Fold this protein.
Amino acid sequence: VQLQASGGGLVQAGGSLRLSCAASGRTFSRYRMGWFRQAPGKEREFVAAISANGGNTYYTDSVKGRFTISRDSAKNTVYLQMNSLKPEDTAVYYCASGMSNYDYWGQGTLVTVSS
């Protein structure tokens, strides 16, 4: 499985961005998908995840109510809609997939939120 993340950029605080992660392979629908982020000088952290069938979603507390993860199996793509962005959301965002563990990782896309 290969993952290609896109959609990052520079946005003002309070603004929105939508990240996309396109997956190759026919097993996309069998894998859960997740988004992680790594801010400068910090460890990578979990942001959001969605189950293989899309029925369950999970978020870290700091993004609940602001971020929404979704998936489109027809397009083999997972999305992260990010609203009400804050400067502390600035990070490189990575998508990942796997059946039990996150075995596959994309290259990351940079999100910068200015105050």
User: Anything to note?
Assistant: The chain is about 0% helix and 50% strand. The mean pLDDT is 95. The two ends are 37 Å apart (CA to CA). The longest strand covers residues 91-98.
